[in-house]
Amino acid sequence: MQPIIQIEGVTKTYTSGHQALKSVDLTINRGEIFALLGPNGAGKTTLISIICGIVTPSSGTIHAAGFDIQNGYREARARIGLVPQELTTDAFETVWDTVSFSRGLFGRAKNPALIEKILRDLSLWDKRKAKIKELSGGMKRRVMIAKALSHEPEILFLDEPTAGVDVELRRDMWNLVRQLRENGVTIILTTHYIEEAEEMADRVGVISQGELILVEEKTRLMQKLGKKELTVILADPMTAIPAELADWKLTLKADGNELEYIFDTHDERTGIPSLLRRMGDLGIGFKDLNTRQSSLEDIFVSLVHNNGRNGQ
Amino acid sequence: MTRVPAFNLHGVLAIYKFELHRFFRTLWTGLAVPVITTSLYFIVFGSAIGSRMTEIGGVPYAAFIVPGLMMLSLFTESIFNASFGIHMPKFTGTIYELLSAPLSAFETVLGYVGAAATKSTIVALVILATAHLFVDIQIAHPVLMIAFLLLIAATFCLLGFIIGVWAKGFEQLQIIPLLIITPLTFLGGAFYSIDMLAEPWRTVTLFNPIVYLINGFRWTFYGTADVSFGMSFGITAGLFLVCLSAVAWIFKTGYRLKN
User: Fold this and answer.
1) In the β-sheet with A203-208, what is the strand arrangement from edge to edge?
2) Interface touch A15/B259, C-beta < 8 Å
3) Angle in degrees, 0-180, between the axes of helices B27-41 and B9-25, rounded to the nearest 10
4) Same structural domain, A83 and A106
5) Mean pLDDT lowest for which of A121-130, A216-225, B51-60, B105-114?
6) Rounded distance between C-alpha atoms, residue A147 and residue A84, angstroms
7) What is the pLDDT of residues B72-114, one digit of tens each?
8) What's the pLDDT at B43?
9) B142-166 and B209-222 helices cross at what angle (nearest 10)?
10) A141 and A248 share a domain?
11) Is residue A307 part of a domain?
12) Distance CA B242, CA A164 (A)
């Protein structure tokens, strides 16, 4: 896999003293959809603002498409498109003019046919002569996406793309993202909705309190998602797991009062009936049984929670 | 992807056209204001005072005040247009796009200051044309007049750009033009010759840089002024360089532009 963005040791401390990023290292591969997942205030927007040139990093280096974002800013920025989180648009310009303006700003010659295609893809063609202030919030969001695509970027950042967006626009947006990916565009989106990351991303990075605490392929996260845990609450506590139960890879918990067994729901045999039979044979009594799904949400919450505790 | 050129001409033109577009959208008010103001000045100063004060340095009073009138509008228009141009995207948040674009500081300033200077120069020339309806005006050094006009427009547009970046709200955009520039212009010999002032006020007035701008500009019209043209040109060029350095510093440090 070819890297398209390489982030090395990037930190950011704002003049207020707030440390928004604590040494982030991350590599994004060409052509992938990467979801940056994290709660509000985790540093997602700061990180992408640094890559795009809106915020200056306190330290660290970033290469985009092989160009240093500071020394080679012209080459790097010409290849990047950004759709920010806030709806920030001009008011009095027409849709057509504002999208054409963006293309020029990024150094590209006029291309009305391309602008037409972008506006049609985003269902904005009928509104091309409308002033932006006359548009609804959803339409403005589409305009911002059109502006970001107007210079045919290789890398597209979508900061909280579906925050406050209706179902129709969300569906259109995902179709567009898939279409862009087919054309080789690398997409980085930030979100605090796990479903969004699950639906779209190839890889997921979890950021919390300015630290990247996990980067993993989504399929691998989904495997974790497919796991369930069985907790057996014992009648009498035990000090060690009997050798006869070694096949199940159990963990002893709660001071020897509980046995935890993790199993894959996709397996043909879960191993639960045989475990319980064997326990009966050995005379190990239990008071209760409990199974639960370990979801991506759980993984996420526990990661963020642990990170928060360690960070205190 | 094609190679990125070393100079982002499309980007500069995009900003330039965007800014001029705003001007043409409000063309009628943009031009009616200087035309009406000039006419009012002519009625009040030219007719009422001019009838009692026929000539200054061999120039009829009504003609004498024309360069000062042009400067008065050029200063305020330049500052207003340039400060509004950069303050607006800061206010609405659309500045994200400018900051993330492959534009150098020089290209950004060329787009904004170039457009603002174009607008204020047009306004100054409209004032000249309006004044011509009231009084006969001879321009001794037309090429120098245009060059000096453009230099002063560029200087005050740079100043406007600085104010636009510095200001934290729309009311702050008004502070420097209203409290500093306009008083200095009125006291800087826009409507009189500083030779008419008694000491020590004449000497005090020489510390007002606007005096040199107005007198230099007046010299290009009538070949006479209160101070030498060389001195006027030197001070104007100095102000231009000070503003240019301040703008360079803003981009180098990101002062009130980015975190």
Assistant:
1) A80-83, A155-159, A186-191, A33-37, A203-208, A211-217
2) yes
3) 60
4) yes
5) A216-225
6) 11
7) 999 999 999 999 999 999 999 999 999 999 999 999 999 999 9
8) 83
9) 150
10) no
11) no
12) 47
Q: Does A133 touch chain B (CB under 8 A)?
A: no
**Better-predicted residue by pLDDT, A197 or A299:** A197
- CATH classification at residue A283: 3.30.70
What type of residue sits at position B237? A
**What is the ipTM score, two decimals?**
0.89
Of residues A248 and B96, more confidently modeled? B96
Q: What is the CATH number of the domain that holds A30?
A: 3.40.50.300
pLDDT for residue A148 is more than 50? yes
Amino acid at B28: W
Q: A-contacting residues of B 235-254, CB under 8 Å? A: 254
Residues of B in contact with A97 (CB under 8 A): 21
Taking one residue from A and the other from B, the number of pairs with CB-CB distance under 8 angstroms is 90
pLDDT higher than threshold 90 for residue A300: no
Is A80 within 8 Å of B100 when comparing Cβ atoms? yes
| A106 and A33 within one domain | yes
Report, in angstroms and rounded to the nearest whole number, the Rg of chain B calculated over CA atoms: 19
Name A181's Cβ contacts closer than 8 Å, sequence gap at least 6.
A31, A33, A187
| Enclosing domain of residue A111 | 3-222
In 3D space, the residue among A85, A296, A294, A295 whose CA is nearest the CA of residue A191 turns out to be A85
Angle between helices A167-182 and A137-149 (to 10 degrees): 10
Enumerate helices (H) and strands (E) in chain B, giving the number of each.
Answer: 11, 2
A51 and A157 Cβ atoms separated by less than 8 Å: yes
* Among B193, B172, B198, B209, CA closest to B75: B209
| C-alpha to C-alpha distance for A170 and B141, rounded to whole angstroms | 64
- In angstroms, the CA A238 to CA A223 distance is 31
A8 in B contact zone (CB under 8 Å)? no
pLDDT band at B6 (very low <50, low <70, confident <90, very high): confident
**What is the percent of chain A where pLDDT is above 90?**
49
Tell me the helix, strand and coil percentages in chain A, rounded to 5. Answer: 40, 30, 30
Q: What is the pLDDT of residue A310?
A: 53
Which residue has better confidence, A30 or A213? Answer: A30
- For B13, name the nearest residue in chain A, comparing CA atoms only: A104
Other C-beta atoms closer than 10 Å to the C-beta of B34 total: 24
Round to whole Å and give the CA distance between A240 and B126: 96
Domain count, chain A: 2
Same domain, A243 and A191: no
Do A208 and A244 fall into the same domain? no
**Residue A299: inside a domain, yes or no?**
no
- At residue B125, does pLDDT exceed 80? yes
